[in-house]
Amino acid sequence: MRISSERTQRWGIVLAGGDGVRLRPLTRLICGDDRPKQFCALYGGMTLLEQARRRAQQSIPAGQILFSLAHAHEEFYLRDLADCPSQRIVQPRNRGTAAAILSSLLLIARKDPNATVAVFPSDHHYSDENVIAEAVENAFALSRREPDSVILVGARPHGSELEYGWIEVGQPALDRRDSFRVRGFHEKPSLPLARLLLEQGSLWNTFVMVGKVLAFLEMTCSAMPGVLRAFQQYQPVRASNQELRIPDSFYAGIPSADFSRQVLSLETQRLIVQQLGPVTWSDLGDCERALAALSHCGGEPEWATSWRAMKPPASAMHHASLAALA
């Protein structure tokens, strides 16, 4: 009975307001327009947003998942989220992940101050959905025991990646072998630092996070007190189609802010990292990462052949670069 009661206080936030500019050449090839990657069906016949929604529903009641969106993408998000208008939170423009997360957290806090919240990006790929589902469940369990902490989900790295956030692990948390206190947080490190972090057993930050809603807000208040106060004063407007819209006049006066850089990296003492099991994770940040993820999808979609035909071999690109320098 306790588990059932705990589940009713679970809430989710799916971040789906990004512009996906770096993947646009590929999404344009697949879809024929300039939609962001989360609204594109790269793998398995479902859009990345649909996959993220299903991922969140593994742990959270379907009616308690909020979707943070951007007004400019309305024609795309309505196709995937037509059945849940009251769960759509529409930003007038993309102001970064901090604004998207805060606007959703405050709505949840007003509905349920005791809520535990999981945050999911909508544009990432996992080779095994069962592994991420297990990690999220473990993170919810950690949050029950560590209600003042926010739990990050970290993936074991397979290279010195410079475009990811790295989590420097400390002592084991609560005597668990797969969860650790966070000693440091490094967003997009230099190559020497990335190599050192790899040698030290650091993890990649998947940006999946779980914690009490008040733990998230306290952490944000410590790192960005002015921004939190500004958000506490705004009220979203319920549109005629039942979705919640953030007023443009409010967003015009707030800065763009990245939650990793401007909150997580400053509040490491409040963080625990839950390590993913054996899985390949990618943020699909560029076209080559999206192509590389195909090896874990059990079959190639038609776009892969077309994309390879459009791209010259790496050796040819290298020789062209040398010729240009000659």
Q: Features of this protein?
A:
326 residues, alpha/beta, Spore Coat Polysaccharide Biosynthesis Protein SpsA, Chain A, 5-stranded mixed beta barrel, two-stranded antiparallel ribbon, 21% strand
Briefly, what is this?
The chain has helices at residues 2-8, 24-31, 48-57, 74-80, 97-111, 129-145, 191-199, 213-223, 225-233, 248-251, 259-262, 287-292, 302-310, 314-325; strands spanning 10-15, 65-70, 88-91, 116-121, 125-126, 150-155, 165-172, 179-187, 203-212, 237-238, 244-245, 271-275, 281-282. By secondary structure, the protein is an alpha/beta fold.
Overview of this protein structure:
This protein has 326 residues and is of the alpha/beta class. The protein has one domain (2-325): Alpha-Beta Complex (Spore Coat Polysaccharide Biosynthesis Protein SpsA, Chain A), CATH 3.90.550.10. The chain has helices spanning 2-8, 24-31, 48-57, 74-80, 97-111, 129-145, 191-199, 213-223, 225-233, 248-251, 259-262, 287-292, 302-310, 314-325, and strands at residues 10-15, 65-70, 88-91, 116-121, 125-126, 150-155, 165-172, 179-187, 203-212, 237-238, 244-245, 271-275, 281-282. The strands form 2 sheets. It has a 5-stranded mixed barrel. The chain has a two-stranded antiparallel sheet with strand order 5-13. 43% of the residues are buried.
